[in-house]
Design a protein that fits this description.
This protein is α+β, with helices and mostly antiparallel strands. It contains nine helices and six strands.
Length: 238
């Protein structure tokens, strides 16, 4: 059964969150209350007694990668492999990719063989990296991001880091990083843009492909790069 090559996401593409934050040349803004809380969390983390707060994890990763892009923009534009390697090193470790892959596969994850799950997780990560990393270099709009105060219980194992993306001539866009604690570290397992979930969108579309052609066919298309995701695309139907 044949399909169109383009495999797009509804709405603005959940990973526009990182694209916009990292691609922006403008500083991240934080409320005084949030800055104080983050500083306290960072101090605790440095003592080794507590993990860094989830919002600190996101903010520090964003600032680190934005700085690297600004310093090496020409190099990364000419040498995409070097750019992808930096993304793989600096961003991917903050995502719980095995868990994301299981969530995206849904019930198909339970039916898949271990090797299929491994291949899917790897191919899915590579697809996300190449699609959205390229957009980071191309994102030229003036953007400002505001981190909202983090609200979570002291013993929480899950948290949501809420931000607002301010784009010129547009309404602020709410973006949330959904995180959980794994072995003492906060990892991202979903991103939502205006309430639209990365995981939910991919699950719906991949589920359709798996029903029609099977999991192996989907994995092969991810591995070969014949499935493309678009940050601003619309769903091709369910």
């Amino acid at each position: 059964m044949s399909h169109d090559k383009t495999f797009s996401l509804p709405a603005a593409g959940a990973l526009l969150a990182l694209i916009a934050l990292i691609g922006s040349g403008m500083p991240l803004t934080v409320s005084a209350q949030d800055a104080a809380a983050s500083a306290e969390a960072t101090t605790e983390a440095e003592t080794g007694s507590e993990a860094k707060a989830p919002d600190v994890v996101v903010r520090e990763a964003v600032q680190r990668v934005r700085g690297l892009i600004q310093e090496n923009a020409e190099t990364y534009t000419e040498d995409k492999d070097a750019f992808y390697a930096m993304i793989d090193r600096e961003i991917i470790p903050h995502f719980d990719m095995p868990y994301i892959a299981r969530l995206v596969l849904g019930r198909h994850a339970r039916q898949a063989e271990p090797e299929q799950r491994r291949r899917f997780a790897t191919a899915f990560k590579e697809t996300l990296t190449r699609t959205y990393a390229d957009a980071m270099l191309q994102y030229n709009s003036s953007v400002e991001a505001e981190f909202l105060p983090l609200r979570m219980a002291e013993d929480a194992e899950r948290a949501t880091v809420d931000t607002r993306l301010k784009v010129e001539d547009g309404e602020p866009i709410p973006i949330s990083f959904v995180m959980h604690k794994v072995d003492g570290e906060w990892l991202i397992y979903d991103i939502s843009v205006e309430g639209i979930s990365l995981v939910t969108n991919f699950r719906a579309q991949f589920n359709q492909r798996i029903r029609e052609d099977g999991l192996d066919a989907l994995i092969e298309r991810l591995e070969s790069g014949t499935i493309e995701t678009s940050p601003t695309g619309s769903s091709g139907g369910q």
